[in-house]
């Protein structure tokens, strides 16, 4: 007995039925846009495991890479981005393209009415970042930028201490995060060292975390940024970096990062006129001391609360509840400004005023 292949009409009916089932079940249907970033696999895994999301499509400007990854995800690959964005069964997109493509890709997705979750940084220059947020606002879609350490337990605890006034007026913040991704046989992909695609090196990638945390704990944007970049491994971009943020109050923020440190702990220090706070790994301990100088009081260990929802979960919440990631977007815009200022400072050897 010969079995007839399904007709175009039956295929269309089947697709419409799948869309109807997804709509009725409340599932948010997603597309992955680009597999350039090292965290693309992490976000795809989180989306694939989440009960309220389904990955239905993928696009990449590197077709062989995109086709292979889409196949692994069981999603349809599109070589044409407008074609994917025209799909009615795509509610939102996860953007993990090269950083330099964010303005074009995210703006196109927003203009197509798709909600957007993206890896930091939002863009490489403030005008491009503003162009993205303008498109998001204009089209009424939900944007969340992955700034994951904002929701970690230690950040929640530090913010509570600062809000209580126990440290007095903040005078200095120091945050360091580094790894060994550029050493030996680098485990970072080669395109992470391409200035045209990545927009920089350690500072624009890993250094984003110390930057947005330092800005957060300072209590606002600095007046100026001074940065120094090192190239230990001889790549075209920095693999060792530090930025100093000078706040209008006189407080200083120091953000340090690098791809050339195998055993560097992640550490945060916040010092004020009445006390100090310190957090560090590998033992995730948080200590505070607020006793007057000369007293016998010692450091007190503070409990670290459970972390809040991940940025991806926050994004889904904003979609479901029709709310906006106001603080997240504001900090993402500030982060782009800080990265841009640090890049210009390192290039010119002078402080850049914000």
Could you characterize what this model shows?
With 354 residues, the chain is α/β, with parallel strands linked by helices. It has 2 domains: 27-141, 3-Layer(aba) Sandwich (Rossmann fold), CATH 3.40.50; 149-353, 2-Layer Sandwich (Dihydrodipicolinate Reductase, domain 2). It contains 11 helices and 15 strands. Residues 1-24 have low confidence and may be disordered.
Mean pLDDT: 92
How would a textbook summarize the main sheet? 9 strands, mixed
* Strand coverage percent: 15-25%
- Element pattern in H and E: HEHEHEHEHEHEHEHHEEEEEEEHHE
CATH architecture of the largest domain: 2-Layer Sandwich
Instruction: Name the structural class.
Output: alpha/beta
Summed up, the domain count is: 2
* CATH fold-level topology of the largest domain: Dihydrodipicolinate Reductase, domain 2
Order of strands in the sheet with most strands: 14-13-12-11-7-10-9-8-15
Kindly provide the radius of gyration, computed on alpha-carbon positions and rounded to a whole number of angstroms: 22 Å
Can you give the helix content as a percent range?
Answer: 25-40%
User: Spans of 5+ residues with little confidence (pLDDT < 50)?
Assistant: 1-24
In terms of quaternary structure, the protein is single chain
What general outline do the C-alpha atoms trace?
Answer: globular
Straight-line distance between termini = 75 Å
Tally of helical runs: 11
CATH class of the largest domain: Alpha Beta
**Number of strand elements:** 15
CATH homolog superfamily of the largest domain: Dihydrodipicolinate Reductase, domain 2
């Amino acid at each position: 007995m010969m079995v007839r292949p399904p007709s175009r009409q039956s295929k269309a009916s089947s697709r419409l039925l799948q869309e109807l089932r997804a709509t009725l079940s409340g599932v948010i249907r997603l597309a992955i846009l680009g597999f350039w970033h090292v965290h693309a696999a992490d976000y795809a895994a989180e989306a694939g495991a989440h009960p309220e999301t389904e990955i239905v499509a993928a696009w990449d400007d590197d077709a062989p890479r995109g086709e292979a990854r889409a196949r692994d995800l069981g999603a349809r690959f599109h070589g044409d981005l407008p074609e994917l964005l025209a799909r009615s069964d795509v509610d939102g997109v996860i953007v993990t393209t090269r950083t330099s493509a964010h303005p074009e890709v995210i703006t196109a997705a927003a203009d197509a009415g798709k909600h957007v979750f993206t890896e930091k940084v939002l863009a490489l220059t403030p005008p491009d970042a503003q162009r993205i947020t303008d498109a998001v606002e204009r089209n009424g879609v939900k944007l969340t930028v992955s700034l994951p350490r904002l929701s970690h337990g230690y950040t929640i605890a530090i913010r509570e201490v600062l809000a209580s006034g126990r440290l007095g007026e903040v005078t200095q913040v120091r945050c360091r995060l580094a790894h060994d991704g550029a050493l030996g046989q680098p485990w970072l992909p080669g395109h992470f060292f391409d200035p045209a695609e990545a927009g920089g090196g350690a500072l624009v990638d890993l250094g984003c975390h110390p930057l947005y945390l330092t800005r957060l704990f300072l209590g606002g944007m600095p007046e100026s940024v001074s940065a120094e970049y090192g190239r230990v491994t001889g790549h075209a971009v920095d693999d060792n970096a530090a930025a100093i943020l000078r706040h209008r109050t006189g407080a200083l923020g120091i953000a340090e990062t690098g791809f050339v440190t195998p055993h560097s702990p992640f550490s945060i220090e916040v010092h004020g006129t009445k006390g100090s706070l310190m957090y560090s790994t590998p033992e995730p301990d948080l200590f505070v001391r607020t006793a007057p100088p000369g007293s016998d009081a010692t450091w007190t260990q503070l409990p670290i609360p459970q972390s809040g929802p991940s940025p991806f979960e926050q994004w889904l919440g904003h979609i479901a509840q029709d709310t906006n990631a106001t603080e997240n977007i504001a900090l993402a815009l500030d982060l782009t400004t800080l990265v841009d200022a640090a890049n210009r400072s390192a290039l010119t050897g002078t402080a850049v005023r914000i």
